[in-house]
Amino acid sequence: MSSNILVLSGSPRKNGNTERLMSAFVDGATAVGKTVKTFCVAGLKIGGCRGCEYCFTHNGICVQTDDMSPILDELRKTDALVLASPVYYFSVTAQLKLAIDRFFALLEDGMPVKRAALLMTCGDDTDAAAASSIAMFRQIASYQKWDEAGIIVAPSLHNPGEIEGRAELEQAKRLGENI
Ligand SMILES: Cc1cc2nc3c(=O)[nH]c(=O)nc-3n(C[C@H](O)[C@H](O)[C@H](O)COP(=O)(O)O)c2cc1C
Q1: pTM more than 0.90
Q2: What DSSP element (H or E) covers 175?
Q3: Which residue's CA is minimally distant from atom 1 of ligand 1?
Q4: Which of 39, 45, 103, 154 is the most buried (most CB within 10 A)?
């Protein structure tokens, strides 16, 4: 079981369905005493990884000083990582992907993350729209040696608030309790 959890949400929409799914997860985790830190990365200034490898020779410090710096600091002390995003054109949002690419700074030194989960919402009426995001998540998890703690995809969502009363909220809460 994890005690320190980092949640990165890629939805740019405040009070949207992804944020609600994420908050159900956070409610479950905090109810059982876990420490959860949440960053809504779409509202932050996070540059794309430059591939310069400065971090490889500077103790995992990225050459860019931007809003990714506190997230990298959290990743250095996190047991469990949760990625949350709406499906945008069959992928996670570009804003979340920018943050994921910046994990590169911790590649040499590693990070203490042991398990990871994926929370997604999409407009299509099946979860097939999330297939490439799930594949990406699983490949990253395998590469980083993270256990898969859970994947929740909530389909058929368009307008904010539509997720209320849906089973996926209860699933996210239980995942938060058990991660
Ligand atoms: C730019 C954009 C692209 C989208 N692309 C897809 C898509 O490829 N497949 C899909 O099922 N839904 C797509 N959607 C719908 C959202 O994934 C869905 O409405 C989601 O629940 C929105 O989450 P939010 O309330 O957190 O903003 C897209 C929405 C936007 C704004």
Answers
A1: yes
A2: helix 167-178
A3: 88
A4: 154
